[in-house]
Amino acid sequence: MNSNRAILLTVALLALTLALFEATSLDLIVQDRLYDAVRGWWVAADATLPKLIFYDLPRPILGILGGFLFLPLAVPALRPARFPLSRREAAYLLLCISLVPFTVGALKHATGVFGPNKLERYGGEQPYHTLFQSIPDVKGRSRGHGFPAGHCSGGFALMGLYFVARRRVTRRLGVVVGLAAGWMVGTYQILKGAHFLSHTIVTMILAWLIVQLLSRAFRLDGRLQEANAP
Question: By Cβ atoms counted within 10 A, which residue in 65, 99, 193, 199 is the most buried?
């Protein structure tokens, strides 16, 4: 598919997703089934093993990956024969795993949306507002930092692997790796009441949009089209 068309389709999908969750109660329908007034959320926020696996470990793992990707940039002698990626590919992936979380983090502070566990509906203190109701900075009203979902953004950024893989099978595997990493962390956050479903879906689509735009900036999309040509 033409890269321009793919980017436009991703933007359209993002807009449709925002409209769907803004116009419906789908977020509340899902979250209502994950919360019990007596037992709390499906996964307790202080449960040691899930917290270690899905909350504490992903960031240092991503940091180690970032250091690995920085190697060919810091040590020019590491040629492709000694390193699985070219310097351009390594720089691209390093920017993916940096820019996606940075963008999501900036949006979290701008949108003012609270996570479910902060809401009166689920034992918190804040009233429920949709995204577009939350964005206006109303005097005297507290603002949350729940949208989009931040912790899973680094995992979804790994979808950039699609644009550095050289074969169709490994390109698809790259997307699967990114989706699996993002949704493992994102699902944990939903189950413990930190985020609504829409928060994670929007992060996923936004991450895909960013890695596509970066692939164009690094001229990796053209190589991909050549590989797909009959």
Answer: 199
* Domain regions of the chain by residue span: 3-228
Percent of the chain surpassing pLDDT 90? 80
Q: Are 207 and 100 in contact (CB under 8 A)?
A: yes
pLDDT tens by residue, 53-66: 999 999 999 999 99
**Quick check: pTM over 0.85?**
yes
State the virtual CA torsion across 199, 202, 208, 210 in degrees, nearest 10: -90
Would you call 201 helix, strand, or coil by DSSP? helix
Q: Note whether 187 and 53 are within 8 A (CB).
A: no
Of how many residues is the chain composed?
Answer: 230
Asked which of 112-121, 150-159, 163-172 is least confident by mean pLDDT, the reply is 163-172
Please state, in angstroms and rounded to a whole number, the distance separating the CA atoms of residues 20 and 32: 18
Instruction: Give which of 178, 167, 187, 169 is closest to 211, Cα–Cα.
Output: 178
| Residue 225 pLDDT > 60 | no
CA 202 from centroid of its chain's CA atoms: 8
Beta bridge partners of 126: 119
Token couple for 191: 């189950």
- E strands, the chain, in order: 35-36, 40-41
What is the Cα–Cα distance from 114 to 177, expressed in whole angstroms? 29
